[in-house]
Amino acid sequence: MSKPLKQIHLAAHFPGVNNTTVWSDPEAGSHIDFRSFRHFAQTAERAKFDFLFLAEGLRLREQGGKIYDLDVVGRPDTFTVLAALAAVTEHLGLTGTINSTFNEPYEVARQFAALDHLSGGRAAWNVVTSWDAFTGENFRRGGYLPREERYSRAKEFLATANELFDSWHGDEILADQTGGTFLRDAKAGSFVHTGRHFDIHGRFNVPRSPQGRPVVFQAGDSDEGREFAAADADAIFSRHATLEGGQAFYTDVKNRLAKYGRRPDELLVLPAATFVLGDTDAQAEELAREVRRRQVSGATALKHLEFVWNRDLSSYDPEGPLPDIDPDVGDHHIAEGRAQVRMYRDPLATAREWRELAAAHGWSIRDLVINTGNRQNFVGSPATVARTINRFVQADASDGFILVPHITPGGLDVFADRVVPLLQERGVFRTEYQGPTLRHQLGLAHPDEARGGRRVV
Prior knowledge:
Luciferase-like_dom; 457 residues; TIM Barrel; disordered C terminus; eight-stranded parallel β-barrel; 15 helices; flavoprotein; monooxygenase; four-stranded antiparallel sheet
């Protein structure tokens, strides 16, 4: 008997702080004007996508002591944007990235419970940690937490927030997974939490929301991040772009669920993916090359090289050869607040590798960055892209994709109009929404059901 076709999950990422957007395109719009968010969200809903996703940066990124102004340098508050979008959409899930390192459980739980009520059960929370003291300078506590402390705090943060969400149910003393204890009293929503990171008590003032709790996303690719997701998340983002890499990640994460009493279908794996469409595969390939060169200007290429060299390279010609000097491996880094810095843990080895690649292919600095940086995941005609996406999902490389267009806000329109209908014809993507809440769209159980119980249908 053949294996039944998996249903594909699709979501849309409003790019935000990134190097993805092609700012020079005449159709590129504002990343702060609400009309951009509204257009993007309503396109995603028209295409029957599961949710819209917003990333968030807590500090403007800097390079060489100056604001990095080659991509987005600001973003309205996440909760404000999502609450506004709740009023102009009916079914689309609303996912926000909220940091667990510098926020407090009561405040975040209250905001998400309110959003879930306002949206009729469509709220989702991407739980992230902060890794640098640079970001911490914006907050009263300042500083930063070591990796093990960040995930310890994040785990207790989420557990504490869940205690607040659940405080309107039951009347008993319970122990959470982090070793803390809490009291919940349905009559008044009272709580007491005593743990390593939080010692709070009071009354939660938002009643049980339609989903009980927001859907929880996690984005870490480290072993700690994967374990956190297996224990507590409903979905995990992935950056693995190849079929083989996706399958390895998918298998690893799904295999971790059993130790927490969870089934494989209780955690969705959703990689981010870019796309370029053309009338033919050849046309799309040509357009993808043009898009990539427009994403990586000469100035952008030099700034990217500075992540590794940790030096001011503004005097170099981006169309010329790589620097013959070695990277500065000192403690201070020229780039502040950029996750890419962590990707190059051995800058001397990376520089040697890049010089070898440039010499072998005759690449300039700009050519190197174009060819070693992120590329479009799906390139081709609508039929080719639909077929490739379906192949990844059916081969268990993912459960779907979070699409990141290179034009904001209209870049999603062509996918909605030309690819989604082909997926629907294959019978692997919905033609109508499945129910009123985001949990319905994702096929996830309500938290009031016992773990391992039936899924929402």
